[in-house]
Amino acid sequence: MRSILPSAAGLALLAGLLSGCAGVHPMACAPGQSRATTAELVFGHKAGQPLGVSDADWKKFIVEDVRPRFPEGLSIIDSQGQWRDADGRIIHQPSKVMLLVLDGGPDDAAKIGDIRDAYKRRFHQDSVLHVTHKACAPS
Prior knowledge:
This protein is of the alpha+beta class and 139 residues long. The chain has 3 helices and 4 strands; from the N terminus they run H-E-H-E-E-H-E. The chain has one domain: 2-Layer Sandwich (Alpha-Beta Plaits), CATH 3.30.70.120. The radius of gyration is 21 Å and the shape is globular.
């Protein structure tokens, strides 16, 4: 009876093929762009009932906690989010998505952590979602 298990050579070949999909090759950027890292932060605006983060509160947070850390600029998108609370309920809430192009400095992670901590503390939030992406940005 023939075995359907792959041979060691077959496994090595498969691993080599899959490693090409895992980002071994550097990202190619268009002329005038270079490789960069972007951060996406998602801030929920429901801190209890009713809505807990007003537009004025949000603007003050940006001026006091974000702009000093990322003076080069950022983009903010209004969104609708949802999350599952500790009791298993799905909570829907308005949110803000902040997009940052990081400068690659050694303090990028600390600055993002400081922003997340400040928001959680100021608005009594459990978390701020943070996603990092590889990207191309203007040189």
